[in-house]
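User: Sequence for SNX11 protein below. Tokens please.
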Amino acid sequence: ELTTVRVQDPRVQNEGSWNSYVDYKIFLHTNSKAFTAKTSCVRRRYREFVWLRRQLQKNAGLVPVPELPGKSTFFVGSTDEFVEKRRQGLQQFLEKVVQNVVLLSDSRLHLFLQSQLSVPEIEACVQGQGSQTVTDAILRYAMSNCGWVQEEESWP
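Assistant: Structure tokens for SNX11 protein:
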């Protein structure tokens, strides 16, 4: 089984305002039975990765969860170097996570990678309080064409 995950295309949102942030495109391609959709593409920001890591840690028991790249103490206009370093760190984090069978069994991870649900919507869905199941949420996103955005670079 092969799972390729790429974190790319960092974009500054709300640029110039006090609440600006960078989000990243996460492109996933797999033939693993663990995933509902075989290809997906979502955008996530750093604090959503922080939430994901915390949830994985809570549910993984003694299994170590990979580290995230450090948080900048203050966000100075988005230096390209900082954003690129963080992008690489986020990619390494996800690459390690999807290779771990225990972490791969967490529904939150699948919704994080394969739906554009917000963190509260992911929580509601996982706890059965949302309007759809985890699988339905992923399939609905995949079928909406948003999840099938083609990657700019071709696969190796």
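The first strand starts at residue 3 and ends at 13.
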